[in-house]
Amino acid sequence: MPAEMCVQRVWRDHSHRTCGKAARLEHNGEWYCETHHPPTRVAKDAAKDAQRNAEWEAVRAFNRRWRDIVAAREAVIQAAKEWGSAEEKDGESATDLALALVVLREAEQAK
Ligand SMILES: [Zn+2]
Fold it and tell me: Which residues contact 108 (CB under 8 A, 6 or more apart)?
C-alpha cells in the first residue's frame, strides 16, 4: 500500500514544512490529508462563512429591533410632552393623554 503524504506547506517549528500527515484525498494530481484537501477546505470555509453571516444577521436584526423600540419610546415621550403643553394651553382633560399613552404602550408591546 503506497504511503502518500500530504503535500500542503505548513508553518511549523518556525519554518515552512510539508504537512506530512497520511494523505487519503487526491486533488489535481497531489495528495492531501483531510485537513488540507483544497475542495474540503473550500466547503468548510463556505460553511463557516454561512454560519458567521447568519450570526451577524441575527445581531443586525436585534440591533434594528432595539433601535425601533428606542425610537418608539422617544416618540411616546415626545408626544406626551406635546400633549402636556397643548393641555396647559387648552386646559383640556388629562384623560386624553393617559388614554393615548396606554394605546401607544399596547402598540409597542404588540410589535
Ligand atoms: Zn495535511
Answer: 69, 72, 73, 76
Residue 98 has pLDDT above 80, yes or no: no
> Residue holding cell 500542503?
8
Dihedral sign for Cα atoms in the order 54, 56, 62, 64: negative
Ion ligand 1: residues, Cβ under 5 Å: 6, 8, 19, 21, 33, 36
Residue pLDDT, tens place only, 18-57: 999 999 999 999 999 999 999 999 999 999 999 999 999 9
| C-alpha torsion sign, points 74, 80, 83, 87 | negative
pLDDT at 56: 98
